[in-house]
Amino acid sequence: MLELCIEEICREFDIQQPMWFSLHERDFAGYGRVTFRADAFIEEIEFDAFEIELIKEEKKKKR
Length: 63
Description:
By secondary structure, this protein is an alpha+beta fold. The chain is built from two helices and two strands, in the order H-H-E-E.
């Protein structure tokens, strides 16, 4: 699911998809957040970093 989300975000912003390294896996698993810097992209990028954070929706309480 995460991979599909990254693909969609990259397509929407017209940027190349970053490479996923073990460091990214650990960061995402531990913090729900990952930062891709220039070394995660094959081509040169025009921004400093690409960051993704998992935001969990709060469940509504039933009344």
